[in-house]
Amino acid sequence: MTETISPPMLSARNLSKVYPVRGGDIQALDKVSLDVPEGSFVSIVGASGCGKSTLLRILAALEQPSAGQVFRDGRPLATPSREVGIVFQEHVLLPWLTVLENVMMPAELYKLPREESRARAQELLAMSGLSGFEDRRPGDLSGGMKQRAAICRALLPDPRVLLMDEPFGALDALTREELSLEMLRIWERDRKTALLITHDINEAVLLSDTVVVMSPRPGRILEIIRIDLPRPRGPDTELLPAFRELTHHIRGLIFAQRQRAAS
Amino acid sequence: MARFWRSEWARLVLPCISLATLLVGWQLLVQGMDIEEWILPAPTAVGSTALDWRTELFQHSWVTLYETVLGFLVAVAIALPVSVLVVYVPALHYTLYPVLLALQSVPKVAVAPLITLWVGFGIAPKVMVVFLVCFFPIVVNTVAGLRSTPTSMLHLMTSMQAGPWQVFRRVRLPVALPSIMVGCKVAITLAVIGAVIGEFVGSEEGLGYLILTSTAQSKTALAFAALAILTLISIVLYYLVELLEKLLIRW
Ligand SMILES: Nc1ncnc2c1ncn2[C@@H]1O[C@H](COP(=O)(O)OP(=O)(O)OP(=O)(O)O)[C@@H](O)[C@H]1O
Ligand SMILES: [Mg+2]
Questions:
Q1: Which of A244, A260, A219 is nearest to A44 (CA)?
Q2: CB-based contact B166:B154 (threshold 8 Å)
Q3: Mutation pick for ligand 1 pocket among A16, A26, A196 (CB with most ligand atoms within 8 Å)
């Protein structure tokens, strides 16, 4: 990859977040800094409750950090933007709208041209194997199909960066693997800047250029690991010794931290 | 056998059979024990009295139905905007809403005579009582519904830069709709009771008035006929609200 002089697409500097709750404050994040360069795939892994979703909400300007700053293209970030698409931890499809209406929601809110958006929505749904389900309600879809639809919605306004919060977290292992590989294939084709939160170490290493490993609460960054495995990657990538070394290393980081927390 | 119990036939016909059994049992009881008509009229006596008095019954039913529906509709028309204001204006949430909750506990039946004192006779005080019994359940349920929007949906809308109106129309309102309909269903059952109470307190027309005068004159069968019609009105109105609910909530 060539080094660029331009600032990273998205960067966080010393983010801390404290939630004031009854019975003492909860520190969710502690001085988190990371960069998401344009065109790269970054994953964040960490134990449940370590502040991953909090970090994503702050990066998306849905929440303000207690300290620190977020920059987009080098400028401080204040409000959500069309350039950032979000896939939430629970798909968050609106049950009273059809699948197509859900996917078209950004078009309505951003006042994009109707016919073009509709065509794009149909195309995204077709690409995700959801053709024929346009007029169904989310309640009729399986978990995997709902997540696909949620990803289509995030992609509809063609954002420059996609933030995904455990998009496959609630799915069974088979569906999960299938969707990861699908995402890998599509990402290697489009190279859209992406940030993926996951607790699946294999998934993180398989997809990413960079894996950010976080400690248990309060979330701190333990290590930022470059993944230099050759692309295009696929199911066979997991057989490479380098792949297994990387996942072993990450597992060690998280596990050592857990043991320290327990003792 | 299990299939029989789940069939459409069982669902529709069995309740009719049990209702018919009840009526036949009632008839046999009255005839067998030779109960006098002014104490407990047999279903056949109620039926024939209803036929004799059909014009009067129709007129009085119309009055009660009118009071009930008008009071209910006014309550809906005022309760919905008030709920939205309570949810969206923090000042009202801390001032108006507690007062509403306190007023909700006032027994409306006991207030009915006062309303007649203030508003006078005619249809207005009855509509007012119906309004009062309907208003609070709708407000309480609508406010609860509007407050129950999942944070994740609000985040979704904010992430797409939706304005307050879009958030309300596209998310808050649909989320609240089932609660609103619950409030309306509670209200519509209370509405008929409210109208009858209003008529009990003082009136010259309506089914409540008819029940009062006919029992005073020992025309018990007529009172039963009026009662049956009240029940029917109540059931039909309830099912109309439920039908509306089915039309509005299709997910
Ligand atoms: N709105 C909030 N108010 C109070 N505490 C919160 C809030 N949101 C998150 N927290 C706390 O912050 C911590 C981090 O939560 P967060 O949801 O970011 O974790 P996570 O890493 O995404 O977990 P998971 O993998 O289970 O999704 C948790 O201890 C949680 O209780
Ligand atoms: Mg989370």
A1: A219
A2: no
A3: A26
CA B241 to chain A, closest CA, distance in angstroms equals 20
Other CB atoms within a 10 A radius of the CB of residue B45 amount to 17
Same domain, B20 and B44: no
Q: What is residue A258's predicted lDDT score, i.e. its pLDDT?
A: 66
pLDDT of residue A218: 87
Domain ranges of chain A: 10-83+161-262, 93-159
Q: Which residue of B has its CA nearest to A82?
A: B160
Closest CA to B15 of B235, B241, B240: B235
Longest dimension (CA), chain A: 60
Fold designation for A10-83+161-262: Rossmann fold (3.40.50)
Tell whether the model's pLDDT for residue B52 goes beyond 80: yes
User: pLDDT tens digits for A144-153?
Assistant: 999 999 999 9
**CA nearest to B62, candidates B133, B132, B123:** B123
User: Per 3-state DSSP, what percentage of chain B is helix, strand, and coil (rounded to 5)?
Assistant: 85, 0, 15
Ligand 1 closest atom vs CA A214: 21
Give me the number of domains chain B comprises: 2
A206/A227 Cα distance (integer angstroms):
9
pLDDT score recorded for residue A141: 95
This prediction has a pTM of 0.89
Q: Is A77 helix (H, G, I), strand (E, B) or coil?
A: coil
- For residue B12, what pLDDT is reported? 87
Domain of B236 in residue numbering reads as 40-248
Does B171 lie in the same domain as B197? yes
Q: A137 C-alpha vs ligand 2 centroid, how far in Å?
A: 25
Q: Interface pTM (ipTM) of the complex?
A: 0.91
Q: Do B8 and B113 fall within a single domain?
A: no
Residues B180 and B238 in one domain: yes
Task: Locate B192 and state its tokens.
Answer: 């008929």
> Phi and psi of B106, rounded to 5°?
-70, 125
Enumerate residues 6+ apart whose C-beta is below 8 A from A247.
A201, A202, A205
Q: For residue B1, what pLDDT band results from cuts at 50, 70 and 90?
A: low
The CA–CA distances, whole Å, from B130 to A242, B119, B124, B126, B230 equal 76, 14, 10, 6, 15
Residue A4: pLDDT band by 50, 70, 90 thresholds? low
pLDDT at position B138, please? Answer: 97
Residues B9 and B126 reside in one and the same domain: no
Give the integer Cα–Cα distance in Å for B7 and A104.
40
The answer on B148 and B78 residing in a single domain is yes
Residues B141 and B238 in one domain: yes
Residues B16 and B89 in one domain: no
Mutate to test the interface with B, among A53, A55, A62 (most CBs of B within 10 A): A62
**What CATH number is given to the structural domain containing B95?**
1.10.3720.10
* Structure confidence at residue A125 (pLDDT): 96
Average pLDDT of span B80-86: 97
pLDDT attached to residue B6: 80
